[in-house]
Amino acid sequence: MLNRYPLWKYLMVIAVITISFLYAAPNLFGEDPALQVSGTRGSQVTASELAKTQATLQAAGIDIKSAALEDDQLLVRFRNTDDQLKGKELVAAELGDNYISALNLAPATPAWLEALGAGPLKLGLDLRGGVHFLMEVDMDEAINRVQEQRIQDFRTDLREQRLRYSGVLSKDEGTLAVFRDAKTRDQALSFLQGRYPDLVFAERDSGDNFGVFAQMSEQRLKEVKEYALQQNITIIRNRVNELGVAEPLVQRQGAERIVVQLPGIQDTARAKEILGATATLEFRLVDEKADTAAANAGRVPPNSELLKDRNGRPVVLHKRVILTGEHIVDASSSMDEFSRPQVNISLDAPGGSRMADFTKDNVGRPMATVFTEYKTGDKINEDGSRQFNKHQEVINIATIQSRLGRSFRITGIDSMAEAQNLSLLLRAGALIAPIQIVEERTIGPSLGKQNIENGMMAMVFGMIAVVVFMAIYYRKFGLVANAALLANLVIIIGVMSMVPGATMTLPGIAGIVLTIGMSVDANVLIFERIREEIRDGRSIQQAIHVGYDKALGTIADSNITTLITAIILFAIGTGPIKGFAVTLIIGILASMFTAIVGTRALVNLLWGGKRLSKLSI
């Protein structure tokens, strides 16, 4: 019989719409103004801080919705933004500097929907509000680090080749190795040229000193800068993800800058705390021959450096760095056999080889673990940028008992919370070069709310116009098309809420509005084909059957070409363009399903298999 669907097709349509509605439903409940409290430098948020927060807010007469510990953070939900702002000031004053209070927006999704894994749409910065940073990578520091490492490599290589040198130092943005005779200089030049093909070498003699000067080629210099930028982008993204910021945007801008957007966070101090955690480790030998008292008075040996441990005691270390944090691939916290906190370190293959080669020749000597942090300071450079403050402290000194490999541990950490914090930062990676914030701005939730309201208004007016036109022009079949239009919108919202990483932006709303207009195109083609078949004298059932079948090819062609364009936009676009492309892709697929399968199911259910003399179309 014509125009009858098997039961499974009806069940499929019902299942798709039901599941889409369930996952779109959380968007009906909105979000609560919230305060998110987290610890800094090893401080943990416990039930004690929860009780203090509740007591402080209650004493101030602030009525809160709820307060609970979630993922080692305290989340307080307020009834309005005024209470949220007032509560932040009170809680920050009560808990002190060891805790950071950040304004946020928390989904008000019912528990039964959360149990199904449903959540509201992830909104972009332009809709939800949040903080935006433009960060610049200190390329000079990146190049300096490569140069410092090259000096160490030159010294090691020349010693292994038994080529005696009087000094290897940094000079004129390059590396100069000085020898006492021309023969040794020539041998070293020949060896180093073969060893380092990415460097440009030249002879540089001065009096009785014979030198080999090495400088990075333009191609190598470009590679160093590109690596520093890409590695910092990856590490910043890892840091943000590790510390629990939802839906961040981290992408490059130009040759030396990175854009970071953190939707939902209104407190720039909290964002800077996340991004400013540029911790790394260095492993160095302790200078046992140095006089600590003399070094503390300013007389430090030329190849050594004076640092302090966590108790403020001076420690003299060799400047040569055995290994840096960039070779760390994993870090975890645990307790040692004496129930003391420790951090377990795993290195990559080159790092493991370097550590093994060094420690096998230095068994019995003390090795220090140096914790290094870069933070943007208050002093301004001539170019307007802020200077970096480099903070270093020795967190551990241990005697090398045996040859170390790719896995080892560091101790001397004050608390388990600090061990967890340190392992988190090391696991997320060490920044190749310091970064500084050259631009920051906060987009308030009120502006995002206005954008949403304007977008919703455009969507509603667009839908009303389409619904009224279809109902008047196509009558009952127009109502079928309108039902498909509503189902299409539910599917788009549901799928966007389900897909990990999909973020709704203002251009995304524009994509939905465009999809509303496009989604009835397929129905128009089908309905006009049915009208044409009826005019040609076919029966009602035959006209419906032929109309759907013959319109299918045209619908597929027109939608597939648009889909290809949307996929290209998504592949090569960035930011807002991707947001528009995502909604357009989902909208096209949803409209094809609702027009070809959904409306056909409804038409078959209402008119299929019946003897009809006329059709309301």
From TrEMBL:
It is a multi-pass membrane protein. Coiled coil: none annotated. Residues 229-288 form the Protein translocase subunit SecDF P1 domain. InterPro entries: SecD, SecD-TM, SecD/SecF_arch_bac, SecD/SecF_CS, SecD_1st, SecD_SecF_C, SecD_SecF_C_bact, SecDF_P1_head. It comes from Oceanisphaera pacifica. Keywords: Cell membrane, Membrane, Protein transport, Translocation, Transmembrane, Transmembrane helix, Transport. It comes from the Bacteria. Gene3D superfamilies: 3.30.1360.200, 3.30.70.260, 3.30.70.3400, Multidrug efflux transporter AcrB transmembrane domain. The keyword Membrane applies. It holds the Pfam family SecD_1st. Part of the Sec protein translocase complex. Interacts with the SecYEG preprotein conducting channel. SecDF uses the proton motive force (PMF) to complete protein translocation after the ATP-dependent function of SecA. Residues 305-433 form the SecDF P1 head subdomain domain. Belongs to the SecD/SecF family. SecD subfamily. Residues 2-103 form the SecD export protein N-terminal TM domain. The gene is secD. It is found in: Cell membrane. The chain crosses the membrane at residues 7-25, 455-474, 479-499, 505-530, 551-573, 579-607. NCBIfam families: 2A0604s01, secD. The lineage of its organism: Bacteria, Pseudomonadati, Pseudomonadota, Gammaproteobacteria, Aeromonadales. Residues 435-597 form the Protein export membrane protein SecD/SecF C-terminal domain. This is Protein translocase subunit SecD. Forms a complex with SecF. Part of the essential Sec protein translocation apparatus which comprises SecA, SecYEG and auxiliary proteins SecDF-YajC and YidC. The keyword Membrane applies.
